[in-house]
Design brief:
Number of strands: 22
Number of helices: 16
Helix content: 25-40%
Structural class: alpha+beta
Mean pLDDT: 94
Radius of gyration: 30 Å
Distance between the termini: 55 Å
Largest sheet: 8 strands, mixed
């Protein structure tokens, strides 16, 4: 291998431009491809900025030509040469596609084995193999663009919030465990044996304490940890853009965040975002779209048919309504030709994953076909057609069940139908604020109310009297920012009065002793003067996934975990030495096949 001494990169590969024609440059990178054409060898040299074609001409420099002959994919090279216009066909897909470098000196800085997969954009190689060799996978140009986009977005975030008076303040990674929500990741203490730190699920309490400390506007790009089941947009460790503001209401928080999102989209991907964003209350979002994070890029809104079929002889409708549920429908305009009976059978299975017992349908074909119209009177049929706006060619889908099941099933179905109908346009970004969430939701397993967001969320002032009489009807001063059916972030105006905070703890089943045990330091701080305050936290990974046009947040995270929360590349989590466990005062307890500990 050659030495790197005495040669310094002058330019990145993807940044060579026409004005450099005739000038000597030095570029460094990885061999993406080598082509031997007899008296000429071409090497596509790649770095994070792109590719440049390097030419080795046997008649110009035989030594460099002979060395280039031995180069293979992923060798690390340094090339000195003169920029010239391409002699052959140009490559319009590359920024450097009209140029090449005639190399006079080649240094092979590092050889490479044949990689386990080809390093190309949009690789078809299995995700498991690519994640095992993630350091190779990260060389792919599409992933490199994602990681660089993320870096740019975090810089824009810091710049924007600093310009708007926010201070970036770090909060602890080792904190007190306050289990309420997802499971904590616990860290045993060597000094205090038998005691544990928790990794933060969010900096919630600390950022509220910073408001009590008078810092007024806080932000942080912070790592958070939750021990929960994974999915496409969830990881055990993730990153938030976290912020908190004092002496504000909902309007102030929304306004500053709309400004941030408009800025980050324009500066990072060149998309202009319209502000202010559309707003829906939680109740309206559920009634119209069956979801508290509705995708607003298309219609297919839910239509309540309950009153129209209340006297129906159709058993499925009658039983659902008698049990206090509802009958609702969506009309997929023009969907009759797409949703054949075979496709509808697939949709039956789809809605069953949301606990719906089945899916009733009407296909507005030349001869109307339906799974249930024969059980209805002519008057009932006409009422349904009028309510859903039925026209020839439409496909109408109906679910009858408890409201939660109906909303979940139809909310998901409208999105699935939109995908199959091809109505979703690339580059279409529809932002939405969802407001006035329920403050509490009833947990059947625990037999108590739990906070829908967290126990520091303030109730709507006009609903405070209901905390004693009808806690399930109390609305929260909470708001979620939604983009194309994905929750980007959520926040709320916080409780800042001691008495109201104590009332909230009582509603979720915490007596004074339990509240003090979990949150005593925050309650103590409230005694010394707390300002009105509120904030919001974005999931940076989700935001980048949408901006990059990816399906999974794994494609915008350098070293992600997989479905079972492991990392294939480093094989973590892993066992540790017995000595380490001894120092921590820990022992591993294994369960045998009968569930007995050993």
């Amino acid at each position: 291998m050659d030495s790197f001494k005495g040669i310094k990169r002058t330019d990145y590969c993807g940044e060579i431009r026409e004005e450099q024609i005739g000038k000597e440059v030095i570029v460094c990178g990885w061999c993406a491809r080598q082509r031997d054409l007899g008296g000429l060898i071409f090497i596509d040299l790649r770095d994070r900025t792109g590719l440049v074609q390097c030419v080795f001409d046997k008649t110009e420099d035989e030594a460099a030509f002979e060395k280039a002959f031995s180069v293979r994919a992923e060798f690390v090279l340094a090339c000195r040469g003169v920029v010239r216009a391409r002699a052959g066909a140009k490559n319009d897909r590359l920024a450097t596609g009209a140029l090449e470098i005639l190399v006079s000196e080649l240094r092979v800085l590092s050889a490479a084995q044949t990689p386990p997969f080809e390093i190309v954009e949009n690789s078809n190689t299995s995700a498991d193999l690519r994640l095992k060799y993630r350091y190779l996978d990260l060389r792919r140009p599409d992933l490199q663009r994602n990681i660089m986009l993320r870096a740019k977005a975090t810089k824009v975030a810091r710049d924007y919030f600093y310009e708007n008076g926010f201070l970036e303040i770090e909060t602890p990674m080792l904190m007190k465990s306050t289990p309420e929500g997802a499971r904590d990741y616990l860290v045993p203490s060597r000094v205090h044996k038998g005691s544990f730190y928790a990794l933060p699920q969010s900096p919630q309490i600390y950022k509220q304490l910073l408001m009590l400390s008078g810092y007024d506007r806080y932000m942080q790009i912070v790592r958070c940890f939750r021990d929960e089941d994974l999915r496409a947009d969830r990881q055990p460790e993730f990153t938030q853009i976290d912020l908190e503001m004092s002496f504000v209401d909902e309007e102030d928080v929304m306004r500053v965040n709309e400004g941030f999102l408009a800025r980050v989209f324009e500066e990072c991907i060149g998309v202009k975002i319209e502000t202010p964003f559309l707003r829906l209350t939680y109740r309206e979002a559920m009634e119209r779209f069956g979801s508290d994070k509705p995708d607003m890029r298309f219609g297919y809104e839910l239509c309540d048919l309950s009153e129209a079929v209340r006297e129906s002889e159709f058993k499925v409708f009658r039983e659902a309504l008698a049990a206090g549920g509802s009958v609702r429908a969506i009309n997929v305009k023009g969907g009759a030709s797409v949703f054949t009976r075979k496709e509808i059978d697939k949709l039956q299975d789809f809605v069953k994953t949301y606990r719906a017992k089945g899916l009733a349908f009407i296909r507005m074909t030349e001869e109307i076909s339906s799974s249930f119209l024969k059980f209805l009177s002519e008057e009932e049929k006409e009422r349904i057609f009028t309510l859903v706006g039925a026209e020839p060619g439409d496909a109408i889908f109906v679910v009858a069940d408890r409201d939660k099941v109906v909303f979940d099933a139809l909310g998901a179905l409208r999105c699935e139908c939109a995908k199959r109908m091809g109505v979703l346009k690339e580059g279409d970004y529809k932002f939405l604020w969802v407001t006035e969430f329920p403050l509490l939701e009833y947990d059947e397993e625990e037999g108590r109310y739990v906070a829908m967001h967290h126990p520091f969320t303030a109730p709507m002032e006009e609903d405070i009297p209901k905390m004693d009489t009808a806690p399930g009807e109390v609305r929260a001063r909470a708001y979620d920012c939604v983009l194309n059916g994905t929750e980007l972030g959520g926040g709320s105006i916080r409780i800042f009065q001691q008495e109201l905070q104590q009332k909230m703890f009582e509603l979720i089943g915490f007596d004074e002793a339990e509240a003090k045990r979990r949150f005593g330091h925050l309650l103590e701080a409230f005694k010394y003067g707390a300002p009105p305050h509120g904030g919001l936290a974005y999931g940076l990974d989700r935001l980048m996934m949408l901006m990059a046009g990816e399906e999974s947040i794994r494609d915008v995270i350098a070293f992600p975990k997989v479905q079972n929360a492991s990392e294939p590349m480093s094989a973590c989590p892993s066992e540790v030495d017995a000595k380490q466990l001894e120092e921590l005062g820990l022992a591993i307890v294994h369960a045998d096949q009968d569930g007995e500990n050993s």
